[in-house]
């Protein structure tokens, strides 16, 4: 028992966040429907997609679905029978959520790398259902479908501005024209949206790559691909053969990949290359 003597209401840090009060305050502000209340409801205290869904999605607190808390708890404590209140037949509703939803090292991702905007597992106390886990709107009440979950990025949530270059295809926004910044306008480009029987899209899939730009985020992303994906290294070699890039550029990309890998290993990051 002495090992648990330092446990308090604040320590250790909980794995989940209780947003009951925030959700109640936001709903009250929206019901007031005044300019001041709407401005407050749209502040970063309420209007951030910082709810982590068990399936890896992020969501706003006022758009969330709900899941019984005991189902999610039993899903991550498989070796123990918790005597859940919800029917055990409903365990199939949480069977295929992400295994890293609960992270012992609490290495949850931040929006725009802002540590105050961490996306974390969230619960609320519902008047009728009791303690419930918040999900995204698409996974409300759970999901029976099997999922192939993509791995988390080992470095950052930010993406390069100009898109990836060392890929088999390139996704490019369909830009109509550039726009000037004005007093009430912060949009730089106008995008074309096309819709037909196949759906709606705002981008083209092409093989045109921009090798004339370089950024830190792009270097890190390419280094990760070159280090761990043999098909990307083969693609880079094919670019040299086809004359799309000079051989010295390809060699430089490989050297940058090695430096990034060594740098992460020295930092001892749990998300380093090869970890």
What does this structure look like?
- The longest helix is centred in the C-terminal third of the chain and has 21 residues, at 247-267.
- 27% of the residues lie in helices and 16% in strands.
- It has helices spanning 20-32, 35-41, 69-76, 216-228, 230-242, 247-267, and strands at residues 17-18, 51-52, 58-59, 65-68, 120-126, 130-135, 170-173, 175-178, 189-191, 194-196, 199-201, 203-206.
Work out the number of β strands: 12
Q: Largest sheet at a glance? A: 6 strands, mixed
- Rounded mean pLDDT is 82
What fraction strand?
Answer: 15-25%
Helical amount among residues, as a percent range?
A: 25-40%
SSE topology string: EHHEEEHEEEEEEEEHHH
Give the distance, in angstroms, between the N- and C-terminal Cα atoms: 35 Å
Work out the helix count: 6
Principal-axes shape call:
globular
Low-confidence parts: 269-275
Which class of secondary structure composition applies to the elements? alpha+beta
- Provide the gyration radius in Å: 23 Å
Descriptive keywords:
alpha+beta; 275 residues; 12 strands; single chain
């Amino acid at each position: 028992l002495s090992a648990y003597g330092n446990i308090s209401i604040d320590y250790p840090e909980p794995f989940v966040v209780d947003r009951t009060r925030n959700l109640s305050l936001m709903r009250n502000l929206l019901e007031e429907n005044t300019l001041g209340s709407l401005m407050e409801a749209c502040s970063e205290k309420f209007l951030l997609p910082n709810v982590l869904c068990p399936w890896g999605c992020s969501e706003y607190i006022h758009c969330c679905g709900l899941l019984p808390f005991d189902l999610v708890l039993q899903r991550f404590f498989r070796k123990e029978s918790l005597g859940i209140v919800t029917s055990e037949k409903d365990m199939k509703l949480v069977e295929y959520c992400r295994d890293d939803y609960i992270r012992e090292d609490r290495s949850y991702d931040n929006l725009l790398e802002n540590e105050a905007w961490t996306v974390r597992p969230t619960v609320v106390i519902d008047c009728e259902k009791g303690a419930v886990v918040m999900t995204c709107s698409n996974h409300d009440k759970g999901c029976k479908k099997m999922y192939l979950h993509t791995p988390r990025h080992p470095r950052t949530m930010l993406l390069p501005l100009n898109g990836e270059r060392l890929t088999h295809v390139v996704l490019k926004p369909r830009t109509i024209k550039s726009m000037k910044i004005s007093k009430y306008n912060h949009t730089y480009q106008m995008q074309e949206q096309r819709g037909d029987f196949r759906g709606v899209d705002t981008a083209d899939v092409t093989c045109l790559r921009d090798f004339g730009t370089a950024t830190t985020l792009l270097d890190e992303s390419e280094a990760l691909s070159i280090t761990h994906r043999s098909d990307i290294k083969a693609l880079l070699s094919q670019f040299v053969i086809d004359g799309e890039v000079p051989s010295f550029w390809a060699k430089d990309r490989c050297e940058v990949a090695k430096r990034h890998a060594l740098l992460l290993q020295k930092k001892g990051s749990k998300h380093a290359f090869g970890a």
